[in-house]
Amino acid sequence: MFEALSDKLNGVFGRLGNKGRLTERDVDEALREVRMALLEADVNFRVAREFIARIREEALKSDVLKSLSPGQQVVKITNDALVDILGGKVHRLEAGPRRPSVILMVGLNGAGKTTASAKLARHLKQDGQMPLMVAADLQRPAAIQQLETLGGQIDVSVYQDAKSGNTPKVAKHGGKRAAELNAAWAIVDTAGRFQVDDELMSELESVKDAVSPDETLLVVDAMTGQEAVEAAKQFHDRIGLTGLIMTKMDGDARGGAALSITSVTGVPIKFMGTGERADALEAFYPDRLASRILGMGDMLTLIDKAQASFDEDEAAEMERKIRQATFDLDDFLGQLQQLKQMGPISQVLEMVPGFSAMKGNISVDELDGSHLVKTEAIIRSMTPEERRRPEIIGGSRRRRIARGSGTTPQDVNQLLNQFSQMQKMMRQFMGVPTGKRGKGGKRQSKKMRRMMRQQGNIFNLPNV
Description:
Blueprint: H1 3-17, H2 24-40, H3 45-59, H4 62-65, H5 70-85, E1 101-107, H6 113-126, E2 131-136, H7 143-154, E3 158-159, H8 167-180, E4 185-190, H9 198-211, E5 215-221, H10 226-239, E6 243-247, H11 256-265, E7 269-273, E8 281-283, H12 286-293, H13 299-309, H14 312-323, H15 329-341, H16 345-350, H17 355-358, H18 364-368, H19 370-380, H20 384-388, H21 395-405, H22 409-430, H23 441-455
Helix pairs in contact: 1-2, 1-5, 2-3, 3-5, 5-12, 6-7, 8-9, 10-11, 15-19, 19-21, 21-22, 22-23
């Protein structure tokens, strides 16, 4: 996500940070590179021009140029400007005064509208707000079946009336069915077109009149760049939008649409799709995304994902095992499986502060998670006794485990050594008092930080 733009911005600001003091010429040269990077990322020309003008005005103030860390000050100014063009604040779904609240999903074909409807339904369900999906796309063959299949996967009901042929009627009856089921939301999936035309807009106007939606969300493909921005402008001018869902953000290395669309249309991005999985839909936080673009990570989203993937009872049991030094390879395997639930390992690592500066030194298998698959295969090839007591694994057992997992004895040995190191660090970590101040506090703090740096190598991940 935003890889090309992020790499260029990090290069520019890295060079600024190496300068003790900044001159007006230094700032102008850096901003010239930033402007080119934005245009190459397909950011709207007007948005890029205003963005650069704002940064230059703030960066050339005397208190910035004369500060002890002018490069960092310019990065902060850039971060604030990025947050503003991305929408400034979080825009959540606004429920109506009566149940169910209605969400009208609109968009062009190929943007992932039906899939986004299901992801949004799952998101609402996870938040304790049970939705009903309404299959009001009567144009595309198999659209109803697709929505029903997705609904079955996430255990959300779907209302459909394929025989009707009247889209506004289906949408209205779907809203009534949602009321009968006491659903919190009715998500109306409508038909798309390959281009914005009068026929499409007239049908959407009829559907909107029939259901009076509380939210009208346009689903746009981030990878189409300024075409997505233009489509959003036309939809908003004709039917009025309350928000946007940007799909395929994980495949958009440039980011021009996301950085332009709110500034051009005035419509906020409310969600972004980051993959094909049913849970690959994130609430849109402008400040968090700006932080990712500038290579500063996104720890808050990482924590959200961890909390959604890790069960509280299991976490408490894991803490007990660590304290009692009974953490074994079965527990390690469980932790790997939960880590995989957080999404592709490359996306998880992108949220780690400083990762962007280190990713050139990380192998491909670490980014695609194949090393986790190898680790899992090795552990599954062990007997229950070997998982509980890995110290009994000698040469012949290593060879047997390697044959069973399709790896080498060296791979098995490496895993056992890493696990042994992790056990030692856990025992050390649990023995270090936390939150203690006063005499010796600095030494304890340094010891904890050193152990946390070492712990980064357990999964062959970068030290952070």
